[in-house]
Design a protein that fits this description.
eight-stranded mixed sheet, about 850 residues, Rossmann fold, single chain, alpha/beta, 26 strands, seven-stranded mixed sheet, 4 domains, rod-shaped
């Protein structure tokens, strides 16, 4: 039916424009019956698209009217030419190239995008401007293009808006249906590649069946069925439809296949371009158009025209005698008949003319002005303002001011084709309060609304504005969408629909492309150890910063904790407690030996070496505290050299005691020259030389590559280790190696002296102590290298405590037992008799 029911009387100073709208009727080719005429000083013609019907191909053995019996047809070129010629002829008759009476040619014509090219063939000859309310057609002739003025914004803004919607909802897997014409071809070849560059993939790209007047209906249905099968087999949820006015009718047609074919209809989200519109027809009340529920479409930005609703409420068949549409529309809309009706009887009901338009479902008639109707409304005012501008321009050039009647006559007698110059320069505010003007390229400066379709059981619907594209807004506001205002199909339970080739790769996973599939299709792989993905569908997992580590789900990075061997933790407390315990025992032994220093057992085997050994064992226990606590510069500089020198002195004391015992027994022969080596000088020399050697090693270490506080972020996954970097690992193992050398020499000498017959002989005890010492430090090396963090420090502390305790425990308990428990045995006689 007629997409708008509006009588346009355009009043400007000195000008009253009439709007003439015509529609073809094929049963009575001449004259055209369905038209609207409003008298005025100047006329604006209009050839407006309505509903469409198809017929089978025309047989040439019969008169065409026998077969083409439908009252509504698609505007074919022939009928468009006829309507165009009537606009140029006297009202009520068609005499080509003649104008009888006082009626002038229309100053401009308004047409739909599907018919304007054919309309232009006739009207461009007379230099009549043609305003189209849809997308600009592809005009091949320059002499015709100059007369086109689209009432439609730059289509690139709409294409950008479609892409923005797809990206906003993360719809990366879509199907595309485009109209089969030049505009559709440009959309597929020029626009869709930009979608791919932004990560959008296409499950299919198909063309709507070509719509023409003479078409094989059965062939069109076959093509539609093929498209329907492709759409329903698609795994994509979102279908982008790039079409024209008639495309909505094709969509409604082929979606009825679900009722006649054994093909289940899947719920799809239809995204339609602004060129498409819902074309009302009487058959729509019987067809299920619920598929539009939840659809999104673009529309040229509109505002509510004040008074339009009230105007529609006053419209009835008796309100306009020159309206050749309204009675015909009334009968089909309300399924009734007026007396002497021109159409075939479809109802026994008689039209009263008092029926209310607002009672009709929106699928039959909408009470709000649609985007296409809004464009037609603005087009009429663009022409009127251009006429006014032209009249003012002529006045400034010296035209004589006239009376109102004379002014009108002068305007009629002017060469009105000059209005083309003024059309693109108009700028005004329409009655809705919106500014209408064109840019330097002649394109309408306007944006697009994003519409959400809400369907109701009674075949009515609402178009809800949920966003828009405003190319002239600040960058952050060019695209807007209000998700909370969108009504999705019920199958999605009001959750945002997904349109993906496969499920998302969730956090902790990354995408891996599938072979021989579009790039939107991929598998999901878990992130490797040490990496995370914090968002869905990440192309690759990322490494955490050095001071962070992945959580167990590998979807976020957690700050690492700082760790070192401290006095607050159980391990530090245990080790410090043992160090204090052994230090106390060593101090106790020293006290016992000092108290009984004049007894034979204390004097035996060099009392000074015994004191030195006990003191350095005490220091070795105490040096453990250099390894516990937060590492700092002084601690790192002291702890390894101190440990190395102290242990070297202790082991050298043991070595000296063993050497002195061996030399003492070798010097018992009369006249032996070795007697002079038995004494304090030899013992002191051994201890001093060993100590100085180790000290020199440590000095070289400190001078060349000294230890320093360091941070280890890599050894432990979830901890930052505060440690002392040894500086030179080689020097560290040189210190340990020299200690090991002293221990081996001591063990060897003690082993040789193990059977010497003397109660003073400590060789057996030294053998065991060196066995413990060597075992501990040989085990230390692999254990130390296989541990990390504070546990490396704990291993070294344990080795210090164990080896020191081994020396203390293997050498001194027997002597302390005699001194404290068996003092009667602590005399020279018993020592000489070897009765320990």
């Amino acid at each position: 039916m007629v997409r708008f029911m509006v009588s346009l009387l355009v009043f400007l100073p000195g000008v009253v424009c009439k709007v003439t709208i015509v529609k073809c009727n094929i049963r009575d080719p001449l004259p055209i019956l369905h038209k609207y005429y409003q008298s005025g000083d100047l006329s604006i013609g209009g050839i407006i698209s309505q509903v469409h019907r198809f017929s089978n191909s025309i047989p040439f053995d019969k008169y065409p009217s026998y077969e083409l019996v439908d009252d509504h047809v698609n505007f074919s070129p022939g009928w468009t030419y006829l309507a165009s010629m009537e606009l140029l002829s006297t009202q009520g008759g068609v005499i080509p190239n003649y104008n009888c009476g006082f009626q002038s040619h229309p100053v401009a014509a308004i047409g739909g995008p599907d018919i304007c090219l054919h309309m232009s063939t006739i009207l461009s000859i007379y230099k009549i401007p043609q305003l189209t309310y849809g997308s600009a057609p592809v005009v091949n002739k320059e002499d015709q293009a100059v007369f086109f003025q689209p009432m439609f914004p730059n289509g690139d803004h709409q294409h950008s808006g479609i892409l923005q919607v797809l990206l906003h909802f993360r719809w990366t897997w879509i199907g595309v249906l485009s109209v089969n014409d030049d505009n559709g071809e440009r959309f597929v070849h020029d626009v869709l590649p930009t979608f791919s560059h932004h990560g959008i993939c296409f499950d299919f790209i198909e063309r709507f069946p070509t719509v023409s007047f003479y078409i094989d209906f059965s062939n069109m249905m076959d093509e539609s069925l093929k498209i329907y099968k492709v759409v329903m087999a698609s795994t994509a949820t979102v279908m982008v439809l790039y079409g024209e006015i008639e495309t909505m009718m094709i969509l409604k047609t082929f979606l009825q296949f679900s009722e006649v074919e054994d093909i289940p209809r899947k719920t799809k989200i239809w995204m339609m371009t602004a060129q498409m519109d819902f074309t009302s027809s009487s058959i729509d009340r019987y067809w299920n158009i619920g598929f539009l529920h939840g659809a999104l479409s673009f529309a040229v930005h509109t505002k509510e025209v004040l008074g339009f609703w009230e105007f529609l409420q006053t419209r009835n068949p008796s309100s306009g005698e020159q309206d050749g549409f309204i009675k015909f529309f009334w009968e089909q809309a309300f399924i009734c008949l007026f007396p002497k009706s021109e159409i075939h009887p479809q109802s026994e009901k008689t039209c009263t003319g008092e029926e209310k338009l607002e009672a009709l479902p929106a699928s039959v008639f909408e009470m709000s002005m649609t985007a296409h109707s809004y464009s037609i409304y603005n087009a009429a005012y663009v022409v009127a303002h251009a006429l006014q501008s032209m009249q003012l321009h002529k006045s400034k050039q010296g035209w004589k001011e006239a009376t109102a009647a004379g002014g009108r006559q002068n305007l009629q007698n002017q060469e009105l084709w000059q209005i083309n110059h003024f059309l693109r320069r108009v700028s005004f505010n329409n009655s809705a309060g919106e500014k209408i003007f064109f840019d330097e390229n002649g394109e309408l400066v306007a944006g697009f609304d994003i519409i959400n379709w809400v369907m109701f059981p009674n075949q009515s619907f609402l178009r809800v504005k949920v966003g828009g594209i405003d190319p002239w807004a600040p960058p952050d506001n060019v695209f807007s969408i209000h998700e909370d205002s969108i009504t999705w199909p019920s199958i999605f339970n009001q959750a945002q629909p997904l349109s993906l080739c496969n499920d998302n790769c969730y956090e902790g996973f990354s995408k891996k492309k599938k072979e021989r599939e579009p790039f939107c299709c991929y598998d999901c792989l878990a992130c490797p150890e040490g990496k995370i993905s914090s968002q869905k569908d990440m192309d690759d997992c990322s490494q955490c910063l050095e001071d962070h580590y992945p959580n167990h789900r590998q979807d976020t990075c957690i700050p690492k904790g700082i760790t070192f061997l401290s006095y607050e933790e159980p391990l530090g407390i245990v080790l410090a407690s043992f160090a204090l315990l052994f230090s106390f025992i060593t101090a106790l032994v020293i006290g016992i030996f000092i108290k009984h220093q004049e007894t034979p057992i204390v004097k035996a085997n060099n009392r000074d070496l015994t004191y030195a050994l006990l003191v350095f064992l005490l220091l070795s226990f105490l040096c453990v505290f250099l390894f516990i606590g937060r590492p700092d510069t002084l601690m790192c500089l002291l702890r390894q050299p101190a440990f190395g020198i102290i242990f070297s002195v202790a082991v050298s004391c043991v070595l000296a005691k063993t050497v002195i015992v061996v030399l003492a027994f070798m010097a018992t022969k009369p006249g032996s020259r070795k007697r002079k080596w038995v004494g304090k000088r030899t013992a002191s020399s051994i201890v001093l030389s060993c100590s100085v050697t180790q000290t020199m090693i440590c000095i070289v270490w400190l001078a060349t590559s000294s230890p320093f506080p360091d941070v280890d972020m890599h050894s432990m996954t979830d901890e930052i280790i505060l440690e002392c970097n040894e500086g030179s690992v080689t020097m560290f193992y040189c210190v340990l190696g020299f200690m090991g050398f002293l221990a081996i020499v001591s063990f060897s000498v003690a082993f040789l002296a193990r059977k010497l017959p003397d109660s003073f002989n400590e060789a057996k005890f030294i053998i065991f102590s060196m066995l413990v010492f060597c075992s501990v430090w040989l085990t230390f090396v692999p254990t130390y290298l296989s541990t990390k963090g504070k546990y490396m420090v704990a291993v070294e502390i344990f080795s210090i405590l164990a080896s020191s305790a081994g020396l203390l425990g293997c050498i001194f308990p027997p002597k302390c037992y005699i001194i404290v428990v068996k003092p009667e045995l602590n005399n020279r006689q018993h020592l000489m008799k070897g009765k320990y």
